[in-house]
Amino acid sequence: MKDFDVDTIKAALDYMLFKPDSIVGREFSLLKFAAKYNIPELMERCAVDADKLEITKSNVVEYIQIAYDYNLEELKEKCVKVLAENKKEIDVDLWNELSKNILVDLISVLHY
What's the rounded Cα separation, in Å, for the pair 38 and 30? Predict the structure, then answer.
């Protein structure tokens, strides 16, 4: 668990001990934690609060991949919106990291 700080690990454990408020303000790091350790309920809860996640040009590729991997529709929608709004500003190398199924889905949304 060296990839996560103590607060993230504690919040994840608290959530699993029926303290749902423990994720508030930590959705970003907890979503990554839940994806890495395959904790579907925590992923879903963080994704439901997708409007609280700060999706940026630098993290959108990571989040859209998580959204597709775990079929998190609200998170997909938010990521697609960020990609569409920033398509010309996102580094080409980041676009190359997207899987083919994501790129196919994005073609109609991101047409120039």
Answer: 11
Return the H-helix or E-strand segment holding 6.
Answer: helix 6-16
The CA–CA distances, whole Å, from 98 to 1, 75, 88, 105, 111 equal 26, 15, 16, 11, 16
- Specify the pTM: 0.71
For residue 86, give both structure tokens. 């920033």
Instruction: Return d(Cα 13, Cα 73) in angstroms, integer.
Output: 25
Q: What is the pLDDT of residues 83-106, one digit of tens each?
A: 888 888 887 787 888 888 888 888
SS3 53: coil
**Cα 36 to chain center, whole Å?**
12
